[in-house]
Design a protein that fits this description.
With 639 residues, the chain is α+β, with helices and mostly antiparallel strands. The chain is 57% helix and 15% strand. It has a six-stranded antiparallel β-sheet with strand order 2-1-4-9-6-7. Helix 3 (185-223) runs antiparallel to helix 4, helix 7 runs antiparallel to helix 8 and helix 8 packs antiparallel against helix 9 (381-400). The longest helix is centred in the C-terminal third of the chain and has 68 residues, at 402-469.
Amino acid sequence: MVAQGLPRGDQSGAWWGSNLARLLLSAIVVQLLYWTLFVPNFVNYRSAERPDFLEIQNVEEAQIASPDAAGLSSAIYRPYNPGLRVYERGYHATRVTFELEQVPETGLALLDNSAGDHIRFYVNGALLSAAGEARLPKPTYHALQKRIVPISAGLLVAGENSIESAITFDMSREADTPPPLLAEFDAVEAAFSWTDFLFNDWRNITIGIGFVLALMLGAVALRANERAIPFWLFLLTLSWSTHTLFYRWVNFPLAGNERVIFYSVNFIFMSACWPAFVDAWTRNSIQYFRPAMMGLFAVGAAFVVFWLGIERATDGFSKTEAMLDLLGLVLVGLTIARLIWHFATKPEESRYLEGAALILLASLIGFFLYNTLIHDRNVGHLPATQPLLLLAIAIGFFARNFRLFRSAAEINQLLQGKLDQREAELADVHLREKLWVREQAFSEERQRIMRDMHDGLGSQLMGMLLAAKRGKAEPEKVAEGLQQVVDELRLMIDSMDSVGESLGSALASFRNRLQPRVEDAGFAFRWNNRLGEDLPSYPPRTALQLFRIMQEAVANALKHSGGSQITITLSKTHVEGEWLEVSVADDGKGIAGPRLGGHGLENMIARATKEMGSVTFGSPEDGQGGQVLILFPIEATNG
């Protein structure tokens, strides 16, 4: 950092030199990292193993009437004339021949470098690939997707082979259609698979990065107090991502001259956004600088629309290409000049790494434009690099504003502390309320138990007491009455086990008490719980009524069935709602005749009805024995 408090005056030269020196050092470091690490692996990667390309014996070309086998069969071929020349809008063909001593087992690989908008290959007269639409006026642009094209061994023959290419041009322009490169597939894949990834999949990844970054920057530009930097970076990122997507969008909605107009206008806008963004990035904008950049964009766009949209001359595309390159170089020069001027006049500037990244991007843009203008070749440095550098610049912007986010974090921490304190107070109040509600529930249950004992057990014991006093107490009836009292007490205890617990634990107690009694009576006992732990949660009153019905059903089976086995099955059924289904079945003579008399069955029905349930009597599915089917609602009781 530069020392604070020094006077400017005679020190201005030292200030300028020091600041520019730091910028130059940062730029050198960034350039070295880029050219020594990134370029060899992500731009100019070359495998140590190079395939032996086949020798092309003859190359011919023709203009054809249709991009299909019929058009190729009627083509009048002439010797191929290499180099750039104007190709008229329509369909063109090339034909190459080559010799194979023997057909490779894995076939051949084809690498195509020809221009054109759509291309189809025919190997020895057979169609190799036919993606998309080749016919005018609206072809798809699959020829821009340069990939390793496999040629299966079945299409090749030992001896002379031919490959014909049907190429569609949707507008007249200067181009070249060189013959494809051919080699054994395994060798080409080993040498060019990573290159294929970089040229295709990596480009798709960078497009995704670009649009996501543009979306984030657009949202920040709408919310930020100082919007210039994120706004211009948003426009720059969006236009660049659109520019890259143009080459991958095979079903582009526009065709012909209109498609090229869109591409050219977007390219000029992207080029003009660079100096405009750098001017905003400095935070010391030069008056009228950004409007002037947009003025240059408007002038360039007007020429493009005139040449391609109004004049529509054959050389309109060539003039547009030359203008894009020249105007792009001018805007790149203005970008670098604006950046250097800022560092030269603002010694307090310390964003050297971001400045170095901007210089790298500007130099790559200039390198790209220079090669297309002078050497007419498209170098791949810029498409593979620009999205990542844009991401780095955006990260730098967010990092500089981290203090803002940190302040927000401190505020959030303070609010979180108050929220935690309030939540603790509410939790304490909720706990006290929960304990009070629980105590109320237990109090209500105690009152219910007292009523049940008074109305049920009390009256039953009182009846036996009076009978004993009158000398009418028969031992067998007293024993049976006492057994009923004990059973009722146990049922009440079982139902109380469901308070705060699962129905499963209460049912387990009920089963453990019931099974010995059934087996002592000479019956086998089976318990099928098809629900496992998935049991409803009933209040004690409902659980007690369920246990009473189940116990009454078991008692009836023991007394009247004449069978040898009792089976209790727990399951769920869904008929107009969700129900707990309890089946008490025996293998006896069935429920008929005398078993339908008395009050036991009526009491079972009444108890189930009181809980919105039902009890039905019949036989199991196999038709053998009797069955009591109990249905208790689940949602109503749980709600």
